[in-house]
Write a structure and sequence with these properties.
CATH class: Alpha Beta
Strand content: 25-35%
Number of domains: 1
Structural class: alpha/beta
Number of strands: 10
CATH topology: Rossmann fold
Strand order of the largest sheet: 3-2-1-7-8-10-9
CATH architecture: 3-Layer(aba) Sandwich
Shape: globular
Helix content: 25-40%
């Protein structure tokens, strides 16, 4: 069974695509309002399981979650004036426990606003290395973790702002395709490093595989 994990599912607009690539989609969304919208949208599809929680690497049961006025910027680590956020105490799930509950991943998308590298490192340290993975990268640390801890050796980049332009079947703020559906050839780690120096890390998803 192929299982896709959508960490930071937002409004669920990527899920219909994921359902064409997997038998089950685990959509994780901490923002209660967005999680409820996803549940309503896919209430008649048993292939979609919505986990309404914040992902953590600890055993704490609740955490402060910062809901931004722009819901694409909500997360555990506020980067702006707190007046732009509503603070909510939300339930959590340890990311390893979540995967043990639902099954081995075929693809994991990590887009959880400045907490991405922390979740990625914890997954890799616990030997969770799916055939395909994508991580929003705000720092070079994500690339280093994928290469050093993950031993991934093939990479592609997706610039978030250009997704609707390059892949018209996806709406704005969608993560877009993964794996072989991404345009272009897979890059080596050296080629990816050179590419990152050109594109920067403002709104970039790094996709990786070892297949």
């Amino acid at each position: 069974m192929k299982i896709i994990y959508d960490f930071g599912a937002h409004n669920g607009n990527d899920i219909p695509y994921y359902l064409t690539k997997a038998d089950k989609v685990i959509a994780v969304e901490a923002n209660p309002e967005l999680a409820q919208k996803i549940k309503q949208k896919f209430q008649n599809d048993p292939r979609v399981i919505v986990e309404e929680c914040a992902l953590v690497i600890t055993r704490q049961e609740t955490v402060n979650f910062y809901v931004h006025k722009d819901d694409t910027r909500s997360g555990l680590d506020p980067k702006e004036n707190l007046s732009n956020y509503e603070i909510k105490e939300l339930p959590t799930k340890n990311v390893i426990d979540l995967i043990m509950e639902h099954g081995k991943p075929h693809f994991i998308k990590i887009d959880i606003e400045y907490f991405d590298h922390i979740i990625l490192e914890y997954l890799l340290e616990n030997n969770i290395k799916p055939p395909y993975i994508s991580v929003e990268a705000h720092t070079i640390e994500v690339f280093c973790l994928l290469v050093v801890l993950g031993k991934y050796n093939k990479f592609k980049l997706i610039e978030g702002a250009k997704v609707p332009e390059v892949y018209p079947e996806f709406k704005a703020h969608c993560a877009g395709p993964f794996g072989e559906d991404i345009q272009g050839e897979w890059l080596t780690k050296d080629d990816l490093f050179k590419e990152l120096t050109k594109t920067g890390l403002d709104w970039v998803d790094i996709h990786a595989t070892y297949l």
